[in-house]
Amino acid sequence: MKYLLFPFAVLYDLITQIRNYFYDKKWFESIQPSVFTISVGNLTVGGTGKTPHIEYLIRYFLEKNKNAENYKLTTLSRGYGRKTKGFVLANKQTTASEIGDEPMQFYQKFVANNKLEKVNITVCEKRVLGAQKILELFPQTKTILLDDAFQHRAIKPHFSILLSDYNRPFYEDFLLPMGRIRENRKGARRANVVLVSKCPLDLAEEKRKSIRNKINNYTKSLVFFTSFDYDKPIDLLNNEVLELDLKSNTDKKYSFGILTGIANYQPFQKYIEKTFGKTEKNKHFPDHYNYIEKDIEFLKKSHTIWFTTEKDAVKLRPLLESFSQEEQNKISIFYIPIKVVFLDQNEEKQFQKLIQQY
Q: What share of the chain is helix, strand, coil (3-state, %, to 5)?
């Protein structure tokens, strides 16, 4: 069936290559903002870990500029799945339906409970317009982080980070609709650095070398390897940390399940099963899924401990809070915060030097 789509993939390749050629030749205008701008994107449709990598950059720049009184950083996303249009600046009244789940996650983590006011979270489907609006509203802005803008050629970042999922590398994938990549693999050459995400923590050096060689067939950029560091599960309703005694010889048995609306849930599920045990009940929805109450009615009748992602939590929490207290007391659902970690500390230092030079 996949090979029947080959002619459409060829046509798609032709269209995207012509578009990129026009940008490369400057026949289409590409505008670079006046302040340092980093793009984090991919060639693949969804699921490479852009959100935690944006969060890594936010933490890095906030720490680096913690003593700078006038430092201001802004994230600019498309706001996929939102019900609004145009430029939106997140505030205390903003919901995920207005800016999208990932920007909402950024806001809750770095703005809602932070008195330093050094971060702005914005969305705009037209990134050039969004960047112009940011500098108009906040001229003290020093850094703009572009979320998922690798194919958005109208804006030219100062530094471009390309992510490639270890489990689904772009060099083994095919163009839409035959595969999952959004442009020819040669598009990787626009990247300043390639980060191979979601790697096993014990990834052997021989395997890393093999992956580097395959990526370097398409780009001569440096290639580094990252993974996720999972934190303890946190209750969506009361923010309490989940504490389970899984090593004792008691007769108490736990039932586990996963509730997700993300593009690639397998690494998350593998972590849950490795850490807590086999998941018996799993509910998987499409990426960026907008949950409604009937989607989670089953939680009220379940005697299962459910795990979900941070991205899903920002949409699930308001629905759970709308349930009665009696219903909430019957529900056990926890999200797991994650952070990006580099497999090699020297590579991390090298990466940080690359983004410090601007």
A: 35, 25, 40
Residue 178 CB partners (closer than 8 Å, separation 6+)? 2, 3, 5, 6, 8, 9
Cα separation of 357 and 140, whole Å? 20
Mean of the pLDDT values across residues 163-168?
95
The mean pLDDT value of the chain amounts to 92
- pTM of the entire structure? 0.92
d(CA 332, CA 329): 8
List pLDDT tens digits, range 314-352. 999 999 999 999 989 989 999 999 999 999 999 999 999
Per-residue pLDDT of 208-220, as tens digits, reads 999 999 999 999 9
Backbone CA torsion sign across 172, 174, 178, 182 = positive
Strand locations in the chain (E): 36-42, 72-77, 88-89, 119-123, 141-147, 159-165, 193-197, 222-230, 234-235, 256-260, 279-284, 305-309, 333-336, 338-342
pLDDT exceeds cutoff 80 at 88: yes
- With 90 as the cut, is the pLDDT of residue 64 above it? yes
Level-2 CATH architecture, domain 28-227+341-356? 3-Layer(aba) Sandwich (3.40)
Asked if omega into 139 is within 30° of 0 (cis), the reply is: no
Domain 234-336, classified CATH 3.40.50.10700, yes or no: yes
Chain centroid to Cα 347, Å, comes to 21
Q: Is 187 helix (H, G, I), strand (E, B) or coil?
A: helix
- In order of 67, 106, 145, 334, the CA distances from 70 in angstroms are 9, 20, 17, 37
Residues of the chain with CATH 3.40.50.10700: 234-336
